[in-house]
Write a structure and sequence with these properties.
201 residues; alpha+beta; Structural Genomics Hypothetical 15.5 Kd Protein In mrcA-pckA Intergenic Region, Chain A; 2 domains
Amino acid sequence: MARYTGPKAKIGRKFGEAILGANKYVQKKNYAPGMHGRGKKRKQSEYAVQLAAKQKAKYTYGVLEKQFARIFHIASIKDGITGENLLKFLEARLDNTVYRLGIAPSRRGARQLVSHKHITVNGEIVNIPSYQLKPGDIVGVREKSKSLEAITTSLASRANNRFNWLEWDKNLMTGKFVSYPERDQIPENIQEQLIVELYSK
């Protein structure tokens, strides 16, 4: 699956949530889309449910299939619960952390800021959205980019101390990735166990 650039509401309707950062989504109806949708009443198979859970996670975090499979592999060989490890590593992506810190209003926006070299990690510019942060890493806004309207507007509307695993210094415009989050701290409505079951087939 290439990076999705189509209508956000379409994906929102598919999963019943505004998962791509849209303020609203088209309410999911109890029948499939299209002119013949009302006639389709097939029950989803176990595989279809598991696949949907994986697709939802990929859309939410903006991750490609190959990247997702690699992160899952790393999660599966680490100590702990595989599904929880998967979400922890997805949360530790640089683009996601930039979004969580409030530097960008969406993951799409965060990915763009990283790609355009507006973001630093431990004082060095990093332009790889999938860069995996480690506890203790400092994420900041490049000096020349601190007055960028997209960043200042996003930061002005951010909530204070929104996530326990991150710290934000508004004066320096830097955030610290303190630790990997626990599952109950991650607000995303993702059924990670279904993803584990899918990869276990």
